[in-house]
Design brief:
Elements: H1 2-23, E1 41-47, E2 55-59, H2 62-71, E3 76-83, E4 97-99, E5 104-107, E6 121-124, H3 127-137, E7 140-142, H4 144-152
Antiparallel strand pairs: 1-2, 1-3, 3-4, 5-6, 5-7
Amino acid sequence: MRSKKILVFTIGLILFPCFLAVAIQRCIMCGMDAQKSETKFTVQITEGTKEVPPGEYSFCCLHCLVLLRARMKGGKISSIMVRDYNTVTHKYDSGDMIDAIKAFYLVESGLRPRGSMVPFMLVFSAREKAEMFKKVYGGRILDWEGIWKYTEARH
């Protein structure tokens, strides 16, 4: 009986870290828990490279995605989703994921999203929501092309 308990305990010790690795979506660039980030990005890579095979990857912020894209010469990204700040609650991993290319990005505002890195930005599915936050917290609103250039210039 004792050896059975030891075996079960040992198997549990081996499998528990595997469970955690699946349960937590780590940013592949910095290791942060991307699910905690109010600026979480998920990227589907359809044509990988030697360094980054095809698959879905999570990022804590656009800065980390910019770093990955710089290393991923020749790969192909089929979709980029980002968390809509307007739908984030205080619950873990909350907020709707929206198409990053169609989103509106509020930068240089007085708000700092949790779990993100510089440059801080808030992401919205509707320009009207971004404008509301801008009126209260300041900043500038950028589209996808603008935010990409803005982030690349700061890394």
